[in-house]
Structure formats: C-alpha cells, structure tokens
Specification:
Elements: H1 2-10, E1 15-18, H2 21-28, E2 36-39, E3 44-48, H3 53-59, E4 64-67, H4 72-81, E5 87-91, H5 98-108, E6 112-116, H6 120-126, H7 130-150, H8 160-173, E7 178-179, E8 184-187, E9 207-213, E10 215-217, E11 220-221, E12 224-230, H9 235-253, H10 261-274, E13 286-288, E14 295-299, E15 312-315, E16 318-321, E17 325-328, E18 331-336, E19 339-342, E20 351-352
Parallel strand pairs: 1-5, 3-4, 5-6, 12-20
Antiparallel strand pairs: 1-2, 2-3, 7-10, 8-9, 9-12, 10-11, 13-14, 15-18, 16-17, 18-19
Helix pairs in contact: 4-5, 7-8, 9-10
The structure holds manganese (II) ion.
Length: 353
C-alpha cells in the first residue's frame, strides 16, 4: 500500500477511491460483494454495509471498517467533507458509474475534488509475489488435472454442456470455488467461435473440440485451453494444429523481463503469417491473469508495456476457419529472469479420442 500512496501522490491526489472489488480484495482482503475502500495518507477506510459486519471483521487487514446505511458513496463523500481542507481524491473513470459520481459529488460538496487515477492498483496487481504465485500454481494445477480427467468424457454423443458441467464439477472436487469464467466447450463448426457458449449439441465423430477452462482457487484464477479431435484428423487439421503450437512456442520463447507485451504477440503472429494463417488469428495473443481473468498486461499488437518478473500471462494463439472449426492452445506462464515458466501442465500434443 506504500507503493500505492506514492503513485497517487505523484498524480497530485491526497487519497484514492478504490471501488473495483478485486482491487479492494487485493488491498485489504475483503471478499464481500459490496464495498468501497478509501486509501488516505495515514489510514484506509473500508465502507461496507451491515450484511458484511462479521465477514469484514474476519477478513479485513490494514483498514478501518465502517458499516454504513444509505449508500457507500454518500458515506465516502461525508468522510471527505469532515476533513478540514480540500481533498483531492483519485478515481478510475471506468470503475465509477455516472450515478455513483453524482452522489459522491453531492455529499462531498466543495471540499471534494476528483482527479483521474487509472490502473494504479492494477499495476501493482500485475506483478505477483511468491505467495500469490504459489496459489496460482495450484489453481493452474487443478485445471491441468481436470483436463486429464475430462478427456474420458469426450466421445461422440456427449454434449458440450455435459462436458462443461463435468469440468466445473471436477474442479470443485479439487478445491476450486468456481470457474474463472463461463467454461467454453465448442465442437465442430462451433469451435470456430472463439468465445462460444456450450450448447446441448452432441459431439460427433471427426470434429474439433475447443475446451477453454479455468478454476478459482483462494480467489486466484487459472486459464487454459486445449483443442482435441474426436476421431482421426485430416492432414489439414493436423497441419493447422502444428502451426498454432509452433506460434505458441515462439511467443513463449521470447518472454522475459524487459520484452514489450506487443513483441510476444508479434512472435506468434509471425509464425502464423508464415503458414498463411495470420488472417484466421483474430484476437490478441494473451493477457495478464490473477484475481481477474483479464488483467494487464494485454499481449496485443503494438502494446508497449514491458514484461516484468512475476507477471503471469496467458499465451493463446488460435485459428478459426468458418465451416471447419477452430484451434486454440492456451497456457498460463509466469515471467522469470530465465524466461517463461509454464504453470498449466496438461499435455499439449495433438490428442485424438
Ligand atoms: Mn485466456
């Protein structure tokens, strides 16, 4: 939190309004679904409501808890108004609704001065410490083990929804509290939808199946994708798979501290371009991961963010061909001084079932 104070002081703020729940969890340990944290120079105040009285007492570290009635933002405004002079409060425009801002300004009155402070907590969160990495390694391990187990259920007749449910059930059996995101099981032509929702469509022989899954373990999320084939694949499908795997390995291979996030994306794209597949690779190469499934840095074209030791990112090139299907291979890696260390250890070779 000292680093955070430094960064908002640099922006000319006296305090930081933290309204995004994952940031609140990161800063003070509170897991409730309603709360606002005000980080001031010499103290932190978590505003929440009476439903969380006992939970906050149990969870919150390093912040004074204030149970409020009649709205969190009004309470923050009242707190600001109780100060002697003006208070410049940093806030993130994409994490405060227009309505919340209006209430805050009405209750804070003329003493409140809002200034933009974007991504301050997110920048801290991007670099994981040893304890966070331990949890993330465990979350990734859950996902890898679930993949191995669920392979047995992948056969003609099984539905996408049935397999997705099985993935989530197996994850919970291994200690996960839920899926990191809506589990993707997409088969046949539907596998070309990069973010398909599972349906009651049964798997058929000679179809690709994309499985994109993640588990939440002690609040941290994992994210891994594998693409398998039901039956025996054609040479074309095998060649596509090899190209995607080659792109993934190239991207992973250049990851180290000091490399620009955009360079990792370029490395994957260059391989697919060489295979004349670049136009089928329609999303960015990866993203940071932690308390949320999409965090900074984004591994996308032209991204200037420098990778740092301790960042956890996904590397997930894919190709999506209308009528044929999609192939995506995604792993989660931690950036170390020696390069990328893979956390998701499920087999990456082409699996035919
Ligand atoms: Mn992902």
């Amino acid at each position: 939190v000292d680093g955070l104070r430094f960064s908002f002081c640099e922006l000319g703020a006296d305090a930081l309004l933290v309204s995004h729940l994952p940031n609140i969890l990161y800063l003070c340990g509170f897991t409730g679904s309603s709360g606002v944290l005000l980080v001031e120079q010499h103290r932190n105040i978590l505003f929440t409501d009476s439903r969380y009285r006992f939970q906050a007492r149990e969870e919150v570290r390093g912040a004074h808890v204030q149970i409020v009635r009649g709205g969190l933002m009004r309470a923050v405004g009242n707190e600001v108004r109780s100060h002697r002079g003006h208070v410049r409060v940093g806030f993130s425009p994409d994490q405060l609704t227009v309505a919340q801002k209006a209430v805050l300004q009405a209750s804070g009155g003329s003493k409140l001065c809002l200034i933009q402070a974007v991504n301050l907590v997110e920048k801290l969160r991007a670099v994981k410490d040893a304890a966070e990495l331990d949890v993330m390694r465990e979350a990734a391990s859950v996902t890898s083990r679930v993949f191995r187990k669920v392979l047995r259920s992948i056969r003609p007749g099984a539905t996408e929804l049935g397999i997705a449910a099985r993935i989530e059930l197996l994850s919970k059996g291994l200690g996960a509290t839920g899926p990191s995101f809506e589990t993707i099981v997409a088969s046949g032509e539907r596998s070309a939808w990069a973010h398909a929702r599972p349906t009651s469509k049964p798997l058929r022989k000679n179809e690709l199946v994309v499985l994109d899954q993640g588990a939440i373990l002690r609040a941290y999320r994992s994210d891994m994708t594998r693409t398998v084939f039901v039956g025996r694949a054609s040479r074309k499908v095998r060649a596509l798979f090899r190209a995607v795997l080659e792109a993934q390995e190239a991207a992973e291979g250049i990851i180290r501290p000091g490399v620009k996030a955009g360079e990792v994306d370029a490395a994957a794209r260059q391989i697919l371009r060489r295979h004349r597949l670049a136009r089928y690779f329609t999303h960015s190469t990866g993203h940071g991961l932690g308390l949320e499934v999409h965090e900074i840095p984004r591994l996308g074209s032209g991204e200037e963010t420098l990778l740092e030791e301790g960042m956890v990112v996904t590397v997930e090139p894919g190709v999506y061909l209308e009528g044929l299907g999609g192939i995506r291979i995604e792993d989660e890696v931690v950036v170390t001084s020696k390069g990328a260390v893979v956390l998701t250890t499920a087999p990456r070779e082409f699996i035919e079932l």
